[in-house]
Write a structure and sequence with these properties.
Largest sheet of chain B: 9 strands, mixed
Largest sheet of chain A: 9 strands, antiparallel
Structural class of chain A: alpha+beta
Strand content of chain A: 5-15%
Largest interface: A-B, 91 and 76 residues
Number of helices of chain B: 16
Structural class of chain B: alpha/beta
Distance between the termini of chain B: 29 Å
Number of helices of chain A: 27
Shape of chain A: flat
Order of helices and strands of chain B: HHHEEHEEHEHHHHEEHHHHEHEEEEEEHH
Distance between the termini of chain A: 40 Å
Number of domains of chain B: 2
Oligomer: heterodimer
Helix content of chain B: 25-40%
Helix content of chain A: 25-40%
Number of strands of chain A: 17
Radius of gyration of chain A: 28 Å
Strand content of chain B: 5-15%
């Protein structure tokens, strides 16, 4: 066995410059057909075995080991050997890898600790791993057992290897060890099929890209992507005018709906709906999502609205929220610092988080707490790759305490509605709260007396804002207040947490729920410096997110890659693929779609609280013993899983027609004539299957799913191709395979 | 469901406990030992039909201001009296007038009079008299100054960091997670409802057609266990037999083929965990959907409110319990809006005032419905909330005033098995279970009246879990820090 392995490894050295295929073939033989497709990294094994090639990290001298494996146990540090990670960037380190272990049916994610190039072995690295699960969703590894190991890199998974824990013979029966679905051999086989089914290079990635950067792939966008390529398309999007449709722009009404929409008004219901709900804003939102050309802008605004959350549940009038939406619109492709300033003084935010009523004598902690906790730095100190900094006892370190909150609170005192006759309040109307103009300072309500100690990280600007020394008149108080506000925002904005905090949030919204730390690190670096020395440039951040190798590629095989489509994405992604129009197909839809997403838990512009519709930390149970991050799963339960499937039924077999009183909306429908023609052209059903495979699942539909789909199609007479098209689309759109953006 | 049946078969040794646990399961410390000796019992032998217990958790999201829910209404000067409360809150307009309080007698505190929020009484246009009456009838108890704790601590220990604190105090998301997890020392990925279910489902619900936990408010941490995932269904404005219905299926062969295809596709996951997770959820929905296809309606008039409709749905499920094969159930409801930094007392029907009115009306309707169903002694309703709020007001003026995030808070427990009409919980430094209402006082963390809890959520939850039939030897598995506290039984449940 020892000899054989040497042979294999020398083969590896021998073919230094020959094709990867041969290298894979050699390793493949060693790993008993346990190789996935060539896209993923490969873990080296003992020859003729699935036993991992492994070295003791404390004794390793840098070469491939030739000693017989030792016995390793929980918390040991070992070296695994990785190859097939072509184009590894110089800055990519161990945190570019996920290391998954499965022992006795429980899933763990082990901690990478080092990455070292192995001399004389081309493209081979020693990956140091601590046999310890940093997150511990399922506790820690058992003392004894056979660990099934896989690693993932840039969204692709390696072969599976075994490592004995506790006892040398823990993996004695390794060939009969039954792993869970997460790591079993079948899955690897499945991947092989997926690989074989790869479409012409680039199509899968283009469709995945449109799912990440737009509200769903459509023909026009795909054409432009073919024409320009992804990077140029992004650049053009940054210059695209937005929004395409005019904002509703309804006038502000009285704070009292009985005055704004008098009881005697025969059209009172419509009045309340238009002015005292988010109806018009929601319709505008969905029209933009379905039809605008500035898809990336709208997608970014939508993601940011789930970071800087306000809600129509407090800001009742649609117009109150409109000005908040405009702040997001203005800065989505601008600078984060500008967003912070305008949002802080936005009256809808001020009302939602109470800054509008926070004064020197009655300070309110709500906004000061949430801008830190939710919008900028988060509650724990972060490394630049988004992982938590740990103290000597391995505990996370809070970013602030109550005293810090108290100090920030003092800075935000004194601003309120711009409700005076003054040039700074052009939209002031007597008796109507002004939700259009930025909040205005009442100088006497601002805290000028106290010195405020803020964040004091290395290099922090304005770590302390001294008490005012000349605040004897309103002019000086005003100067002091605005200076203090800007200094405090600078103090927050420059906190090292902001890049990884905001970067990871946006990755999770656009690309994948559980990005590798290295991916987060690359995006944070773009936040910290756009290349021209500017911090907070959102264009640099978005570019970094969407052009990252972890986002790009035709196929992704990491079992944890991707994200559940949130309800809005789920609905618009189906609609945009099939030319959505009004119910009668004579004009564009009017965007009356929010009722559908509400039923799935996402009432647009009406999130239940400042904590959004779901938590970025939500962890979903795959099976007992296997838990993975999946923020959007906070909205998926038994009830809403049926809501989703029932929406598919509505849109495929019927259309959205919503009667909301006086104003019968136009409804929304999709066009299945294209699918119908394909179904007609090929009575076997195969063409329909392949079309849906490419269009809906970017070419990775498994044989199993195809078989089920084929049976369903063939149950419909070939003489009814439209019904065949509907039947097939229903099965795929309702499937979990489509619900997950991957 | 499938999961639990499989588990059941795998652990068929538990068959005895299904029988043995009929009425007195909680006393069987040796239950599992006995169970291991018996391998086969027909699952149909299950349960005497009368043995049913359910916990109904109402989560008051945002942080309910307990200081305005339970108020001293006496003049005793040795402890905080009404004047102490008014002194702290009246100037800014946050204090509730004394003549508005609904008086209750507290045997635990020398028979002194306290007051419940006025929304707990009758109110024009509302369907019932509210829950104030239930206190007098011994069906409603108050657990005072309860909150997230790792271990007991004093003001001095708090300020000197002498005892481990719950992580991220005063932060909504973290404190909500801890209330629902029953664990405050570190982040938990399961809730205490879920863990109770993990440790009781197989024994008590061997024939159940739905999970032990039903949520009317989504999949929250409370409802998640190691092996437990909840049934989550729509609120009561949707009929129970309509909550899980797949639309578009007629009797045609085409429809049958479609249904068959999506069932098949649901068994494939392409090696993707997220696909498998989504499959697991829709699989549970399909299995529950046939169990819930029977119409059932409540008798009592429920208020048409957020919480009223949720509790109405709970009452329907309870009414269907025999058809569903459930002997132990846990329910989760949620009422939001309690983050009253402002507008807390603007009018009698808005802010916290309106929410407590809604809470009282919904709880009372639910209690009355349980009486009608004959299950009032089998069903216990409890409240949780993020945290209490500062005694010191935020903002001022009746329309604007509110309160900020704090810590220790009062909770309500309702049901025929509750030893109602009294206060429960560990004593504070003043020798009663009610905190000293004084900024910078002995129970304050700092200077705004944020009470350091004297009773932990774990003690509160363990008391309920014991009544629910969680075996004693599982108590520390469900509540890992319970040993840090002097008792796991606060005494408010009659067993």
């Amino acid at each position: 066995m020892k000899t054989k392995r040497t042979v294999c490894l020398s083969t590896l050295r021998l073919y230094l410059n020959v094709s990867l295929a041969i290298l894979v073939f050699c390793l493949s033989a060693a790993a008993q057909n346990n190789m996935p497709n060539s896209l993923g990294p490969i873990l080296l094994t003992e020859n003729d075995s699935t036993q991992a090639l492994v070295a003791d990290a404390n004794k390793w001298r840098g070469n491939l080991p030739s000693d017989e494996p030792q016995v390793y146990k929980r918390d040991d540090q070992v070296i695994l050997f990785v190859t097939n990670v072509k184009s590894m960037k110089p800055k990519e380190d161990e945190n570019a890898f996920f290391v998954y272990a499965n022992v006795n049916g429980k899933a763990y994610r082990l901690t990478p600790i080092s990455l070292t190039s192995v001399p004389n072995s081309p493209e081979t690295y020693g990956l140091g791993v601590k046999l310890h699960d940093e997150r511990g969703y399922n506790g820690q590894l058992p003392a004894e057992g056979c660990a099934s190991l896989q690693i993932a890199w840039r969204g692709n998974i390696s072969n599976m290897v075994r490592l004995a824990l506790g006892k040398a013979d823990s993996c004695k029966n390794e060939r009969t060890v039954s792993a869970t679905a997460m790591l079993d051999q079948q899955r690897v086989t499945g991947l092989g099929q997926a690989d074989a089914n790869l479409l012409a290079a680039g199509v899968g990635d283009r469709i995945r890209f449109m799912e990440q950067a737009t509200f769903g792939p459509d023909r026009a966008t795909e054409k432009r992507l073919r024409e320009f390529g992804i990077a140029t398309w992004i650049k053009k999007q940054f210059d695209q005018s937005y929004p395409t449709f005019a904002y509703p722009g309804l006038p502000l009404k009285s704070g009292d709906s009985a005055i704004g929409c008098p009881v005697e008004d025969p059209n009172r219901a419509a009045c309340l709906r238009d002015y005292y709900s988010q109806y018009q804003q929601q319709n505008h939102f969905f029209k933009e999502a379905l039809y605008d050309d500035a898809q990336l802008h709208h997608r970014t605004v939508w993601a940011l609205s789930q970071l800087w959350v306000t809600s129509g549940n407090t800001n009742l009038q649609g117009r109150w929220m409109e000005e908040y939406v405009k702040v997001l619109d203005r800065h989505a492709f601008g600078n984060y610092r500008d967003l912070m300033y305008e949002m802080t003084l936005n009256p809808a935010m001020g009302n939602f988080l109470d800054m509008i009523r926070s004064t020197r004598t009655s300070p309110n902690e709500n906004y000061p707490r949430e801008i830190l906790q939710l919008f900028t730095v988060g509650v724990y100190e972060l490394n630049q790759d988004g992982t938590q900094v740990r103290d000597a006892n391995n505990n996370p370190i809070p970013t602030y305490d109550q005293a810090r909150i108290n100090n920030f609170t003092r800075i935000y005192t004194g601003w309120t509605f711009c409700n005076v006759v003054s040039a700074e309040c052009p939209n002031h109307q007597s008796g109507i709260p002004n939700y259009i103009d930025s909040m205005r300072l009442v100088p006497s309500n601002h805290d000028t007396a106290n010195s405020k100690a803020l964040f004091n990280y290395p290099g922090a600007p304005y770590a302390t804002i001294p008490a005012c020394t000349n605040c004897t008149n309103d002019a000086n108080r005003t100067t002091y207040a605005y200076n203090s506000l800007n200094q405090a925002l600078d103090n927050i904005f420059n906190h090292p947490n902001v890049g990884p905090f905001v970067g990871k949030f946006l990755i999770q919204h656009l690309v994948t729920s559980d990005p590798s730390p290295t991916y987060v690190g690359r995006v944070a670096a773009a936040f910290n410096n756009n290349g021209a020395g500017v911090r907070g440039d959102m264009q640099a951040v978005i570019r970094a997110i969407l052009l990252d190798p972890e986002a790009r590629g035709d196929i992704k095989t990491d079992p944890n890659y991707g994200k559940l489509r949130e309800p809005v994405q789920f609905v618009t992604n189906i609609l945009r693929r099939f030319n959505p129009l009004s119910a009668d197909r004579l004009q564009q839809s009017d965007g009356v779609i929010n009722g559908v997403t509400s039923g799935m838990g996402q009432n647009v512009l009406n999130p239940p609280s400042v904590f959004n519709y779901y938590s970025p930390d939500y962890v979903v149970s795959v099976v007992p013993g296997t838990d993975v991050p999946g923020p959007e799963f906070g909205l998926l339960n038994t009830g809403t899983s049926f809501s989703r499937i029932n929406f598919v039924n509505t849109i495929v077999f019927n259309r959205i027609v919503v009667n909301v009183g006086a104003n019968i909306p136009l409804g929304t429908s999709i066009d299945l004539t294209g699918l119908q023609a394909i179904a007609q052209s090929d009575p076997s059903g195969e063409a329909l299957i392949e079309t849906l495979n490419e269009k809906m699942l970017h070419g990775v539909m498994s044989e199993n799913v195809k078989n089920a789909l084929r049976t369903a199609i063939q149950a419909v007479p070939a003489s009814d191709p439209l019904l065949r098209a509907k039947q097939a689309l229903y099965v795929i759109a309702a499937s979990s395979q489509f619900q997950i953006q991957r | 469901m499938k999961e639990s049946r499989r588990q059941f078969i795998a652990k068929s040794g538990c068959a005895l406990s299904m029988l043995a646990l009929a009425t007195q399961a909680r006393h069987f410390g040796l239950m599992s030992a006995l169970a291991n000796n018996v391998n086969t019992q027909p699952a149909t032998a299950a349960y005497p039909p009368g043995d049913y217990r359910a916990l109904v958790c109402i989560f008051l999201a945002g942080g309910n201001d307990g200081n305005n829910m339970v108020i001293p209404n006496h003049d005793n000067t040795s402890i905080s009296n009404y004047q102490a409360y008014a002194n702290a809150r009246n100037a800014q307009g946050l204090a509730i007038a004394r003549n508005q309080l609904l008086p209750i007698t507290v045997p635990r505190i020398s028979g002194l009079t306290y007051g419940l929020h006025p929304g707990f009484g009758p109110y024009t246009g509302q369907p019932n008299n509210g829950i104030h009456e239930l206190y007098g009838q011994g069906k409603l108890a108050v657990v005072t100054n309860v909150g997230n704790l790792v271990a007991p601590m004093t003001r001095q220990q708090y300020q000197q960091n002498g005892v481990a604190k719950p992580y991220q105090l005063f932060s909504h998301s973290d404190q909500v997670a801890q209330q629902q997890a029953g664990i405050s020392g570190q982040r938990s990925y399961s809730g205490w409802g879920g863990r109770i279910s993990d440790n009781t489902h197989t024994n008590f619900n061997p024939n159940a057609l739905i999970p032990t936990i039903t949520s009317i408010s989504g999949t929250t941490l409370f409802t998640i266990g190691g092996s437990t995932a909840p049934l989550a269904i729509a609120s009561g404005n949707v009929a129970l037999n309509q909550v899980l219905v797949l639309q578009g299926y007629d009797s045609s062969t085409v429809a049958a083929a479609r249904r068959e295809a999506i069932s098949q596709v649901r068994t494939f996951n392409e090696g993707a965990n997220l696909i498998q997770a989504a499959n697991r959820i829709s699989d549970a929905a399909v299995q529950a959907s046939s169990a819930l296809s029977t119409a059932v309606e409540v008798t009592v008039a429920f208020p048409n409110t957020t919480l009223g409709n949720q509790l109405k749905q709970v009452a329907r499920v309870i009414k269907r319990r025999e058809g569903l094969g459930t002997n132990r159930q846990i329910f989760f409801c949620l009422l939001g809006g309690f983050d009253t930094h402002n507008g807390q007392v603007a009018t009698a029907t808005t802010g916290q005032n309106g929410l407590l009115l809604q809470l009282s009306q919904a709880m009372r309707a639910f209690y009355d419905e349980m009486v009608t169903q004959g299950t009032e002694n089998n069903v216990t309703t409890l409240t949780l909330s993020d945290f209490g709020r500062t005694l010191n007001p935020a903002g001022s003026g009746t329309g604007a005033v509110g309160s900020d995030h704090a810590w220790g808070n009062h909770a309500l427990v309702m049901g025929g098995a509750v030893r109602g009409g009294d206060f429960y919980g560990m004593n504070t430094s003043n020798g009663t279970p009610f905190p000293t209402l004084q900024n910078s006082g002995p129970d304050d963390t700092d200077d705004r009246g944020r009470w350091i809890p004297t009773t932990s959520v774990e003690q509160y939850a363990a008391t309920l879990a014991r009544w629910y039939s969680l075996p004693e030897d599982q108590m520390s598995a469900v509540f890992p820090n319970i040993g840090n506290f002097t008792t796991s039984d606060l005494g408010f449940m009659s067993l």
